[in-house]
Amino acid sequence: MNKTGTLISVEEALNIVLSASADFGVEEVGFKQSTGRILKEDIRADREMPPFDRVSMDGIALKTAVFNQGKRSFPVENIQAAGRDQLTLGHEENCIEAMTGAMLPKGTDAVIPYELISIKDGVAHLEVDHVDVYQNVHKKGLDQKKEDLLIKRNTLISAAETGVLATVGKAVVKVAKLPKVAIVSTGDELVDVNDTPAPFQIRKSNVHTLDSLLKRFMIEPDLFHIPDQKEQLRHKIASLLEEYDVVMFSGAVSKGKFDYLPEILSELGVEKHFHRVRQRPGKPFWFGKKQHTTIFAFPGNPVSTFVSCLKYFVPWLRKGLELDVSNKDFAILAEDFSFKPELTYFLQVKLLNEKGILMAVPDAGNGSGDLANLAQNDAFLELPSDRNEFKKGEAFPILHYRF
Amino acid sequence: MNKTGTLISVEEALNIVLSASADFGVEEVGFKQSTGRILKEDIRADREMPPFDRVSMDGIALKTAVFNQGKRSFPVENIQAAGRDQLTLGHEENCIEAMTGAMLPKGTDAVIPYELISIKDGVAHLEVDHVDVYQNVHKKGLDQKKEDLLIKRNTLISAAETGVLATVGKAVVKVAKLPKVAIVSTGDELVDVNDTPAPFQIRKSNVHTLDSLLKRFMIEPDLFHIPDQKEQLRHKIASLLEEYDVVMFSGAVSKGKFDYLPEILSELGVEKHFHRVRQRPGKPFWFGKKQHTTIFAFPGNPVSTFVSCLKYFVPWLRKGLELDVSNKDFAILAEDFSFKPELTYFLQVKLLNEKGILMAVPDAGNGSGDLANLAQNDAFLELPSDRNEFKKGEAFPILHYRF
């Protein structure tokens, strides 16, 4: 038996996590609250886009056939404003002033912008030699036909989608529900942010890092702290397993005397899918499931918790939302780097966009406890376990944490 | 005079917008509400990090000098738990079980993990040949000394920073205030999202696109609609100029008969800094200032409004927040593209990360009214005005709108 014992690889761990994905269901929200959510219906055009032959420059609308007969002066009959019913040209040798956004008046088929005409005593004089049919007219249905698919189900809603939703009148929209998540800290050395720690204590930070990260995915987790006492842990965890879709722990999964979590989870009927992964940081990661509840028990070190949440929870969430889970984000190593152990190494890097090429500058920090180093960097570069030397210029997947 | 007349270049326009930047001031928020905000104080270590010689593996703590004398069996005296005051080794030939996160017991200087020992009848037997001093001990102050700078003023707070804020006890944190923004639609052709438009009407969408975009920067804008009537416009805009730091318009800045905005803004004492920029889409962009209020009057076409907000408002906001305003985001054109007019062209593109190289695939759409095309893409590629031909493989700046 080699030193890594029963550890599984990062790839195996991720596959197991993904195969334990859940369906969160669908809910309806107001379209103004839908930014950042995942669309759960196809959005189709409710009518042609544009819905009418739409004037796209301010100017005069006329009939090109008359222009082509040599006429260059057109008496102005009327004004076609945006938001008004369509006018009809009374006499084909006249024109109608027409505003951007208005319907093209009946009997006309082109718009000449004000820049290219002069209007004197109610007559528009043209200073052009050529007019195209439908010039400066955004033709009805040019962009989209009625019932055309505008936004596909399973799209992440951004500002661009919000505008489309508004246009087609989707005031209420179907989006993926999000899992109900509990984030639990354990560890008697932890005190609250407001407290002054004794020399042997530290303030809770991992639960807040996780909370902040999950909020970027629109999840509003509930935070709990449970002391390192078996009975309290058992009792509280039992109720969390009932109430939540996800229970996320930070700490108490190593080999310590007070690392009760694996034992208690097992007693509570949680099926362990794996414990310990061939990676650094984050080796003691414990993952399991009980009925509808998924348990991510991350190691207690700050960097371990953070990288494991990015590497495992985020794809698990994406799978449940029916999004693509293959990581297509890569960056290029800016310096040679070596890492000896046969583990997948998550290297902290600063990202630089150099004229379209994403460079990753290593800044490893002092290991899994070095929280402050995270704040100096942008992402983890995932270096595979089957090699020790990583060369400048090679591309590797990244886990970006600034978005 | 060439056809572009008094238009200014995109570069000039951006410089003018940036020189009109404002200082939004500073406010205090709870650290849990600070994600996405800009930090307005330096964050320093309130004590050493780690604050004590911290056990980093579960196992036994012993004195290496005794190990080096050949001793391999150490009676276990006690257990040093995390969150408990520091124990002292009573007899140097003994050891103390020590848990991850605990203080290293006095009189010991290394930790041997459980994996490498066996404990029988209260005596730990070591299966190692060599022990380093401070092995598996995260030394006090190794990561940071007290008062070390952990996060610089003017950092965008992400999950990584949240953890650091928690660790150093910054329960309340100074962040940049955000401007109070009014988004105003005009245009009698516009109806609400809930309404069924008449054939000559369309639903309001630009204000919602802008609203969604600004929310990604933590701004909560107020939305207004004013009909195309001079008196109503004048009266309402006068009060918005008093109440808001930014008034953003969409529409009514072209040359149409009902494009009253430039005239009314001038009457209300707003100083025009420019009107019309050598760009497509978005040429009729009007920009001005009255005392503390900055006015962005974007053209009414959806794509024009969207790209102008990304290109001008976002850097203006960043400048006011004291962030870097130089655009370092580039992507590489995936296909040849040509664009004849002497205008800066904002080309819609899909972005692909191809092993660390950011490729921009053009998908121009049907012009500034083609809102649905935005939802098919990810960014605008900014193509300069001094050329007509843009070659596959060339890098250009991007304005990303999915983040």
Number of helices of chain A: 8
Radius of gyration of CA atoms of chain A, rounded to a whole number = 31 Å
How many angstroms does the end-to-end distance of chain A come to?
42 Å
| Assembly type | homodimer
What fraction strand of chain A? Answer: 25-35%
How are strands sequenced across the largest beta sheet of chain A? 7-4-6-5-9-8
Name the average pLDDT of chain A.
Answer: 95
The counted number of beta strands of chain A is 28
Largest sheet of chain A: 6 strands, mixed
Chain pair with largest interface: A-B, 120 and 120 residues
Describe the protein's architecture and organization.
The structure is a homodimer of 403-residue chains. By secondary structure, chain A is of the alpha/beta class. In chain A, 19% of the residues lie in helices and 30% in strands. Chain A has 8 helices and 28 strands. In chain A, the strands form 8 sheets. Chain A has a 6-stranded mixed beta sheet with strand order 7-4-6-5-9-8. In chain A, strands 16-13-17-21-20-18 form a 6-stranded mixed beta sheet, sandwiched between helices. A 5-stranded mixed beta barrel of chain A has the order 22-25-24-26-28. In chain A, a hairpin with a 2-residue loop joins strand 20 and strand 21. The longest helix of chain A is centred in the last third of the chain and has 19 residues. The radius of gyration of chain A is 31 Å and the shape is elongated. The two termini of chain A are 42 Å apart.
